[in-house]
Design brief:
431 residues, alpha/beta
Length: 431
Amino acid sequence: MKPPVRRPGATRSAPARPRSPAGNPTRSAALALVGAVLDRRRGLEEALDALPPAAARDRAAAHRIAAAGLRRLGSLDAVLEPLLRREPPPEVRNALRIGAAELLLLETPPHAAVASCVDLVPRPFAGLVNAVLRRVAEQGPAALEELDGERLDTPGWLWTAWHGAYGPAVRAIARAHRLPAPLDLSLLPGTEWPEGAERLPTGTARFPAGTRITELPVFAEGRAWAQDAAAALPARLLDVRPGERVADLCAAPGGKTAQLAAAGARVVAVERDGHRIQRLRENLARLSLEAELVQADAAAWNPGERFDAILLDAPCSATGTIRRHPDVPHLKRPSDVGALAGLQRPLLAAAARLLAPGGRLVFATCSLQPEEGEAQARAGAPGLRPDPIRPEEVPGLEAALSPEGWLRTRPDLWGGQGGLDGFFIARFRAE
């Protein structure tokens, strides 16, 4: 994504207080969310949790506006750029972005979108916001049609990396990132198939984008949890059996721990972060599942035992989750990929040391970057040998298998069904 040009004479002084934020709770919250991501590099979900108390409807609407603006940030800036003689202060720029997102992407009536965004900015900029957004409203969605949206909405370093790894498919990946993701659920064994859900080839229940999980009976009854179809694959490919002693390393927020426990394994879930392990505990309690929780750095953890199977969903840049987390391209930097790959290597070696002879290990990352996937599997770890994933284990995703038996999912796969997250998965056995 090309950053906005700072024109000569542009002011960078801190803006005054908005005129009447209390009158626009949804847009005020959306403005705070976009500013948190773009100006302070805070995650969107973290910023949402930090908002002042508000009605659930207002919070959901604010998240929807902010997410739309972040998904199409490059395109929106390209529409706004010719309408600005100089670069406005960050808060004003962000107000214009959310206004443009409402007008061009969310079909908000022009009078509502324009007036509410005018109310968000300091008085000296009210006329500017009013004039610019009225011009955007006049142009309508047609303003986006002649733009190279896939390219504009993808940071340059990611475009280059994905083009090198996936060739022309980079456009399909970028296109998939521009659409809200559907809601995917994993179900406890024996749960009746939920009404209105599509059954994906790998067993995930899929609901349309925008479905509110809290309104689904299967969730309210503690029989299901949110988990992207791709995120459900690592635990399934570990193929645990009842009574097996299994370690889930880097386990939070707990979806994979839940899968392993629901399959009857005796699970030890290891997580370094105390806040995340508390969330893991709460998620398991809601599902009435049990696991031994350990707060520790998995790379240095020494439990004094070996395991029949280990799942390592390693920390990564999360570029495979952009369709669900549109803040990721604006938070990550190229240097993050190398740094995280450096963390993954000792984790894989540590996991290998914890396996019993003949034990199984699944290594996974929710990243589209080869440094965090293929390169790690190629390097392997002492004491491990490949255990290739077989086509019959991944129905509908046979084409995503590499000659080595690794699985590489991408957001553009299953395009007609709403896609899936980008994951890399490799399986090993202890020698």
